[in-house]
Amino acid sequence: MATTNNPIPLPAAFLETTASRLPGLAESLDSESPVSIRLNPFKPGRSMPEGRPVPWAEPGEALYLDSRPLFTADPVFHGGAYYVQEAGSMFIGWLLRRLLPELDTPAPRLLDLCAAPGGKTTHLASIAGPESVVVANEVIRTRAKILAENVQKWGTGNVAVTSDDPAAFGQRLPDYFDLILVDAPCSGEGMFRKDHTARAEWSPDNVQLCAARQRRIVSDVWEALRPGGILIYSTCTFNDAEDEANAQWIADELGGEFLTFDDLPSGIVTGPDGTAPVGWHFYPHRVASEGFYAAVIRKHDAQHRSGGKVKAAKSLVPVSRADLGALTRWLAPESALSRFATGRDGMTYGFSEALHDTVSTLLNGHFTLLYSGVQLGTLIRGELKPEHALALYYAVSRKAIPAADLPEAAALEYLRKGTSTELLPVSTFAPGLNLVTCRDIALGWAKRIGNRYNNLYPAPWRILHY
Ligand code: SAM
Fold it and tell me: Cα–Cα distance between 395 and 331 in angstroms, integer?
C-alpha cells in the first residue's frame, strides 16, 4: 500500500467520469480515513474500546475510534470481542434488521456468497441469531481459511463455511436460501482513500470486466434464492456500471423488484442522482465512511420455499445418548446447539436443528465444507477433549472449568505462546484445564499438570508481532 507521503494520484479517467459528477468526492479521497469497529453482542467484555456511535448502527453496536490503535496488541480482539470494519459496510446490518421480518421464518437461511474475510458474515450471524443459518462462501481457498478462522473467533455457532464456485449453489441448491448477500469483488473506487494500490490497479477496462463478472456471479447463484427471497447486492465502488446499472440489470433480467425504506439515515444517497430507488451510496464526502453501495431486490413470485425432510449426511454420525452428557456439560443454558455429530475427521460438532439440516444438505451436495457449527472436540471414552473453537463459542459454560482471567501483558504472552515465567507463572492456572480469558473474553485453553502447564492456543493462530 502506498502511504500518503508517496501518494498515487487519482486516475484521470475516474476524475473525468464518476468524480466530476460528485463535487467534493475527489478531495475527500485525500483526507484521513475514519476507523470503526463493530462489537460482538454475544461477547460483552469489560473495558471495551470507547468511541462515537456509527449513525446507522444500533446503540452500542459500533463505534468510530479517534485513532487507529494496534488491534493486534489488544488481547480481546483475538477473542472475537469486536471486528474492525468500514462503517459503510455496517449498513448491511441496518438492512438485515429491516429484512428479517419479511423473510417470515424463525430460522432463516442466509448465504453470504463472497464472504472472506468475514466482516459481513459475522454481522449477519449476530443479527440473524443463533437459530438462523448463515452459509459463508469464499471461492478463493486461502481466503476461505481466514474466513473460517474469523467465524470461529466470532463464536456465534450458526455458520457453515464453504469454498465453492457461485454456480455450485445455483445448480445444486435450487430455491434454498431466504436471503443471499453478494458483496461482489469490484474495482474498489471506494477504497481509493485507504488503499492506494486500488488507485494503481483501476482502469476503465477493469471497471467493465468487474461489471461483467458481477453479473455472472449473481446469475450463477440466482437459482439458489427461493421465490420471494431477497438479494442484497453490494460493492465498494462508485461507478454506475458496477452499481446502479448492474442492480437494474439484475431486477430486469433475472426478475425482481427493488425494496426501499423511508427511514434512511441522513447522508446516504439514494440512486445515482438522489432520485431513482436503485440502491444506496455511501460517499466519503457525505458520511464518515469509505465508499460503499448496496441495493435490495426481492425475487419475483412470493410462494414460500418447500419444507421437506433432509437426509442426514452419512459422514455425520450422531453422538450416542450415553455421550451426550459429556458434551452438554460444556454448554451454557443459552446455547442453541441441539444436534451433535462426529465427522469423518473424528471431530465432534454441535449444531442447531436448522444448521444440522443445512450441513447435511451441503455434504450430500458435495460442497467443500471447511467449518460448521461449533467444533466441540474429540470424544475419548465418554470424555470430551475440547477444541479451541469451543473456548471461543459465546455459550461455552463458565461453570464447567475454572477461568484464568489474565491481565493484558500476560494475555499477550499467552497469545504469542511465549514462555516467560514472569508474565505467566504456573500459579496463574488452576490444576487441570483452564479457560483463559482477558477482560472476561475467552481466548483459549491452558492445562496445568503439577508444576507445569501446556498453552493450548493453536500455533498457526499465535500472534507474531505487536
Ligand atoms: N464480504 C467480505 C467482507 O465483508 O469481509 C468482503 C468480500 S470482497 C468485497 C469480495 C470477495 O469476492 C473476495 O473475498 C474475493 O476473493 C471474492 N471473489 C473473487 N472472485 C470471485 C468470483 N469469481 N466469485 C465469487 N467470489 C469472488
Answer: 6
